[in-house]
């Protein structure tokens, strides 16, 4: 099938619009002449395009060396083996292939280079401690194990628990039941069904092959049966529940397992052949998640180079674990460790004793580093804040505490608008815009008592690390207000879905606008792996790192800001400290700060923020 001249022109116009957006976002350039590199301009991970589906179409017309799906983007890339093959794929798919969102045709263009997002997961270095033993068992042993675990539908074991069917696979437990969601076991409830004795031969062979491994005989076995199209979400086996290593034996067919390190963003694909044993020990067991994407085909390296697709078949996995005796993990990988994360709840005293250091490292330093990029993304005043500023009478003096780039200092021409901030680089932006600003800390505002008619503090108080310091900052605003003066305070809300509506912060992640996949229901948010980071210069003080554009799971946390430097194509990550507020927490803080000297005029929720308008009482 070929395109008509009229349709070709329409497609070309659409491609051009996409190219302009991708050039700006990915930092690449396009070519009018064929190259080995093809950009699919209107389909990617965020539109639901599957790599296997794309490859199935493309491989009919040429050989593919690499596929690149940038995370969270509506575009992706193919690297072909030759320009001739790339041209053939382009001709066959551009404007014709209906793999776009809601059946839209794909829009293709040739580009000069691939963006530097991440390493090829097939060529990436595997994590330490990850060992794959191919052909660990023979076909006879494979059949013996399948008969021993009996996960077929007609299994009849009246004296033990029946097979369980999860939404996406059948599962059967031996020794102890593995509880999905918590990724743990109830050690007080051992099962009558023990690990089959035939498995004893596995331990003998494993000890011979890897005598250096910290060794024990497993006492818990989980058997999963995967039909084509089924998978398991990325997870880490709970540190405090199980010893090292974790063993996974594949029976029946091959599958691709993905390993990801949340702290670095690294990803590794491992092809697990039937009858192979995967050993997860050390770093691979403790610091990386592993999972299987639900799909009916896997993308794998082709024998003669490049990539190909392979249909999945029925697979049974045997995962062997050894319970820890004391529910305590002593590993050296705290980022995903539940034992280490339990100490997060005990961080309040550490945070209090190192509050100034936390703010210096993860607020003041960071905002100076990201000042220009931050300012470029903060140009539109929030309507209700701007309305507050414009409501002032002629000649009133307003102080913007934590004014940033001064976006509210131009909201009124009849009032005197003053700003103060800790960041000298953000203040430089204000000066260049002609605003009246000064540098100070919000805990010690250099203004006389009762000297201003109004104050605003927008997205500032949540950067202070203790209740006492947050209360002190509000007290400073109340101190400088004249009797009858008003203050407007905005802080980030922990709940980003108040009133059953997602905030704009969450909606910017297109995945949040889709109904959750059934697999995701197996891993509740509060059991997702959490990355922990130690605060520089703050002793043992560690804080969880938030995953951007997701619901908050903690109140005190570090939120990443990614910044691409002019010298590098890679983005640097800066971690900003936040205390996100529960409902009514801000009102209580204001009343504790002002006591009988203030009255709360209004309290409301505005696009993911808790907001308060207070007034200082007349003398």
Automatic annotation (TrEMBL):
Subcellular location: Cytoplasm; Nucleus
Needed co-factor(s): Fe(2+)
A single cellular component GO annotation: cytoplasm
Pfam families linked to this entry: 2OG-FeII_Oxy_2, Methyltransf_11
Protein name according to UniProt: Fe2OG dioxygenase domain-containing protein
Region (Disordered): 503-528
Keywords, comma-separated and alphabetical: Cytoplasm, Metal-binding, Methyltransferase, Nucleus, RNA-binding, S-adenosyl-L-methionine, Transferase, Zinc
Keyword Methyltransferase appears in the UniProt entry: yes
TM ranges: none
Main location: cytoplasm
UniProt GO MF annotations: metal ion binding; S-adenosylmethionine-dependent methyltransferase activity; tRNA (5-carboxymethyluridine(34)-5-O)-methyltransferase activity; tRNA binding
Polar residues biased stretches: 503-514
Boundaries of every Fe2OG dioxygenase domain copy: 217-324
GO biological process: tRNA methylation; tRNA wobble uridine modification
Organism: Anopheles merus (Mosquito)
């Amino acid at each position: 099938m070929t395109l008509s001249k009229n349709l070709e022109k329409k497609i070309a116009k659409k491609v051009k619009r996409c190219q302009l957006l991708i050039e700006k976002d990915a930092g690449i350039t396009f070519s009018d002449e064929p190259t080995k590199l093809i950009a699919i301009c209107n389909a990617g991970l965020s539109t639901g395009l599957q790599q296997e589906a794309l490859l199935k179409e493309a491989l009919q017309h040429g050989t593919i060396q690499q596929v690149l799906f940038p995370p969270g983007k509506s575009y992706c890339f193919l690297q072909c083996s030759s320009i001739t093959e790339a041209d053939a794929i382009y001709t066959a798919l551009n404007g014709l292939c209906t793999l776009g969102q809601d059946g839209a045709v794909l829009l293709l263009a040739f580009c000069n280079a691939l963006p530097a997002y991440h390493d090829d997961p097939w060529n990436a270095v595997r994590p330490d401690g990850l060992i794959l033993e191919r052909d660990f068992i023979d076909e006879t042993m494979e059949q013996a194990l399948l008969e021993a675990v009996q996960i077929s539908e007609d299994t009849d074991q009246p004296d033990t628990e029946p097979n369980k069917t999860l939404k996406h696979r059948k599962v059967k437990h031996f020794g102890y039941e593995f509880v999905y969601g918590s990724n743990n076991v109830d050690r007080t409830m051992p099962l009558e069904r023990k690990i089959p004795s035939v498995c004893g031969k596995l331990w003998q062979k494993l000890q011979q092959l890897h005598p250096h491994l910290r060794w024990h005989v497993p006492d818990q076995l989980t058997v999963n049966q995967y039909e084509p199209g089924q998978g398991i979400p990325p997870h880490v086996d709970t540190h405090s529940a199980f010893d090292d290593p974790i063993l996974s034996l594949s029976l029946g067919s091959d599958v691709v397992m993905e390993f990801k390190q949340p702290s670095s963003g690294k990803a590794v694909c491992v092809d697990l052949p039937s009858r192979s044993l995967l050993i997860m020990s050390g770093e691979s067991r403790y610091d990386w998640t592993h999972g299987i994407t639900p799909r009916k085909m896997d993308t794998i390296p082709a024998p003669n180079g490049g990539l190909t697709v392979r249909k999945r078949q029925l697979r049974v996995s045997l995962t062997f674990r050894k319970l820890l005796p004391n529910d305590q993990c002593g590993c050296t990988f705290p980022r995903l460790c539940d034992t280490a994360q339990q100490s997060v709840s005990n961080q309040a005293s550490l945070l209090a004793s190192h509050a100034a250091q936390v703010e210096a490292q993860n607020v003041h330093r960071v905002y100076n580093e990201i000042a220009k990029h931050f300012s470029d993304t903060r140009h539109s005043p929030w309507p209700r804040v701007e309305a507050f500023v414009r409501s002032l009478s002629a000649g009133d003096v307003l102080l913007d505490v934590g004014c940033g780039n001064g976006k509210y200092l131009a909201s009124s021409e009849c009032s005197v608008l003053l700003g103060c901030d800790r960041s000298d680089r953000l203040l430089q932006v204000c000066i260049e815009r002609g605003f009246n600003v000064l540098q100070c800390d919000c805990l010690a505002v250099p203004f006389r008592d009762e000297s201003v008619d109004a104050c605003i503090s927008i997205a500032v108080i949540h950067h202070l690390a203790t209740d006492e310091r947050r209360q002190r900052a509000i007290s400073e605003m109340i101190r400088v207000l004249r009797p009858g003066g008003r203050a407007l305070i905005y802080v980030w809300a922990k709940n980003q879905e108040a009133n059953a509506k997602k905030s704009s912060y969450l909606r910017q992640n297109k995945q949040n606008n889709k109904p959750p996949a059934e697999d995701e229901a197996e891993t509740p948010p509060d059991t997702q792996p959490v990355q922990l980071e130690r605060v520089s210069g703050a002793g043992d003080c560690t804080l969880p790192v938030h995953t951007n554009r997701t619901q908050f799971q903690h109140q005190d946390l570090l939120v990443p800001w990614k910044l691409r430097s002019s010298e590098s194509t890679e983005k640097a990550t800066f971690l900003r400290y936040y205390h996100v507020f529960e409902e009514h927490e801000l009102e209580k803080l204001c009343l504790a700060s002002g006591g009988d000297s203030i009255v709360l005029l209004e309290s409301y929720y505005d696009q993911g923020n808790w907001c308060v308008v207070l007034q200082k009482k007349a003398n």
